Amino acid sequence: MTLQLRLLHLADSAVPVGSFAYSFGLESAVNAHAINNVNELANYLYAFLQQTTRFELPFVKDVFKAEDTTETIARLVEEYDAMQFIPSMRKASITQGRNWMKVLMSFYPDASLHDIDGLFQERSLPSHVTILLALSLKKIGYNFQDVASLILHFALRDQLSAAIRLGVIGPMEAHQLQHKFYTILDDLLLQVPDDASQAFRSAFMLDIFQMNHQHIYSKLFQN
User: Fold this and answer.
1) 72 CB-contact burial (10 Å; exposed 0-12 / middle 13-18 / buried 19+)
2) Taking each helix axis from N to C terminus, what angle separates 57-65 and 129-140, rounded to the nearest 10 degrees?
3) Helices 171-181 and 38-51 meet at what angle, rounded to 10?
C-alpha cells in the first residue's frame, strides 16, 4: 500500500521535475493549425501515446529484463541517445533526468540511488529521464507495469496541461478527456515491442512538429 501511495506522489504534477516547461511539439502543432478542436486534440494525443509506447517503453522493458551491470546500462543509454535526433527534445530529456534524480535521491536517501547517479557521471552518460526513471524505480522496488503506466500517465497529463495553457481546451474538458484515455492505456501496454532493438517512432508528423518548434516566433514552451 505504501509503495503505491508513494508512486501516486511521484505522479503528482507538483513534483519539481520540470516537465511543465515543455509541450513536446504540441505548441508547434497548434501554431500550424493542425489542432483546432477537441477531436483533433484527441487524435493527436492518441498518436503521442502510441509514440511513447513504441519508442520509450521498449527501453524501460529492457531495463527491467537486463542485469544492472555497467556495460548493460551504458549500452541502453547510448542506444537511446543515438535515437534522439531532435536537439531540443534531447536537451529536455537530459534536463528532466537530472531533476528526476535530484528529487528521488532526496526522497530515498537509503536506496543507493547515488550509485546510479555516480555511474552516469563516471561514464559521462547523458541523463535521459526515461532510462533514469526506470533504473531508479526498479531499484526502489517497482515493476515494469508500474513504471510503464507512470510514463504513459506523465505523457498524457503533460500534454493536456500544455493544451490547457495554450487555450486549446478548458480544464474540465481536459480532465474528462484524460479520464477517457485511461481506458485505452492497458491496450497500449500490450503493444510495447519486446526490447529496445525494436523501438521505433510511429508518428512522423509529431517529429515534424517537434523539429519546427524552434522556428515559432513567440513561444510559451521550450519545446
Assistant:
1) middle
2) 40
3) 40
C-alpha cell belonging to residue 46: 492518441
The single-letter DSSP state of residue 111 is S
DSSP string, 129-188: HHHHHHHHHHHHT--HHHHHHHHHHHHHHHHHHHHHHTTSS-HHHHHHHHHHHGGGHHHH
Query: How many other CB atoms sit within 10 Å of the CB of residue 142?
Result: 21
Are 131 and 90 in contact by the 8 Å Cβ rule? The answer is: no
Whole-angstrom distance, CA of residue 91 vs CA of residue 166: 22
C-alpha cell at 68: 544492472
pTM: 0.94
Q: What is the pLDDT of residue 135?
A: 94
Q: Which three cell numbers stand for residue 203?
A: 508518428
Whole-number Å distance between alpha carbons of 52 and 180: 18
Go through the chain and tell me how many residues it has.
223
Rounded to an integer, what distance in angstroms lies between the CA atom of residue 57 and that of residue 51? 9
The single residue listed with the C-alpha cell 536506496 is 111
Q: Which range is least confidently modeled, 53-57, 93-97, 173-177, 214-218? A: 214-218
Label residues 1-11 b or e (16+ Cβ within 10 Å = b). Answer: eeeeeebeebe
DSSP E strands: which ranges in 90-162? none
H/E segment holding residue 74 = helix 70-82
Q: Per-residue pLDDT tens for 89-139? A: 999 999 999 999 999 999 999 888 998 888 899 999 999 999 999 999 999
- Is residue 190 predicted with pLDDT exceeding 80? yes
